[in-house]
Write a structure and sequence with these properties.
Helix 7 packs parallel to helix 11 and helix 10 packs across helix 11. The chain has one domain. The protein is mainly alpha-helical. It contains eleven helices and no strands.
Length: 257
């Protein structure tokens, strides 16, 4: 890769971070794991639950079944990006020796990590925008978004899920191990987010487990914020705790080679 050689030579050329960012973007498009899981998968969920939810109807504190699924779809999109795109890319680069090679140059591994996270955050923003537009204009969800609460909920969701993704990358020695670990985490997180059954439909203690799990706390916080209501503080505190815990463990066990 001549471009990689330019980036990892004896000096860091001017504008190298922007070049690295563009390269990460091209890799993400060429190997569209984040694009497929983080955008296409939530769009399919939006269509399916939009059709089913409007047909079924329902009344959950004045909300339809589909209204409850709008934040769930957003959270699933962020989970998919954080657990598939981020760990797979980092573990692959470590196996190929790219992280070790970058660590010996002025273009630090931290910049490589930052560029990867920025690209995946862009995918996450696309997911949120598409979900909002689709739910409001195609399926008539009566959203009344409080921008402040929504921004806090989304940021904490991103911190929580991306910290978990970095932790997976930190403790995975190979891509095969990462794939196994991601599969082990992904489906329980989908369930806890409310994909198959909403917390409002079940009783305790399962309801409480869903509410305060990483995915459940994120979903409930976003649900409140898109209907102009302050999110429950316990869910916000839970996401802060998860972010700190996952992040600290990721830093503790992460290896560049």
């Amino acid at each position: 890769m001549s471009f990689l050689s330019d980036l990892t030579g004896d000096y860091a050329p001017k504008g190298s971070f922007l070049k690295l960012l563009r390269m990460q973007w091209r890799f993400a498009i060429r190997e569209p794991l984040g694009l497929g899981m983080g955008i296409i998968f939530p769009v399919l969920l939006l269509i399916v639950f939009g059709i089913i939810g409007r047909a079924v109807g329902g009344d959950f504190s004045g909300l339809s079944l589909f209204d409850l699924y709008v934040p769930t779809i957003m959270v699933i999109g962020i989970i998919s990006i954080a657990l598939y795109s981020v760990p797979f890319t980092l573990v692959r680069d470590r196996e190929l020796g790219w992280l070790r090679r970058v660590s010996t140059t002025p273009l630090s591994p931290q910049k490589l990590l930052m560029s990867l996270l920025i690209v995946n955050l862009i995918f996450g923003v696309f997911t949120i925008i598409i979900t909002l537009i689709g739910s409001i204009y195609f399926f008539g969800a009566p959203l009344n978004i409080n921008v402040f609460y929504f921004a806090i909920s989304i940021l904490l969701t991103v911190f929580t899920m991306f910290s978990l993704g970095l932790l997976v990358a930190a403790i995975s020695p190979t891509q095969r191990f990462a794939q196994m670990l991601i599969g082990t985490l992904f489906y329980p997180l989908l369930f806890l987010s409310g994909l198959w059954v909403q917390p409002a439909m079940v009783g305790d203690p399962l309801k409480s487990i869903m509410y305060y799990s990483p995915a459940g706390a994120a979903t409930r916080s976003i649900l409140y914020s898109v209907f102009n209501t302050p999110p429950p503080y316990l869910e916000l505190v839970a996401m802060v705790v998860y972010s700190v815990l996952f992040g600290a463990l990721a830093v503790r066990y992460f290896r560049w080679q």
